[in-house]
Amino acid sequence: MPMSKSTYYFELTKVDLVDKRNTELKDEIQKIFTEHKGRYGVRRVYQELLNRGFVVNHKRVQRLMHSMGLAGKRPKEKYHSYKGKVGKVAENIVNRDFSTTAPLQKWTTDVSQFNFSWGKCYLSPILDMNTNEIVAYDLALRPNLEQISRMLEKAFKKFTNLSGLIFHSDQGWQYQHNYFRQALKEHGIIQSMSRKGNCYDNSVMETFFGRLKTEIYYGFETEYSSFNAFAVAIEEYINYY
Question: What residue stretches are annotated with the Integrase catalytic domain (predicted)?
Answer without folding.
Answer: 99-241
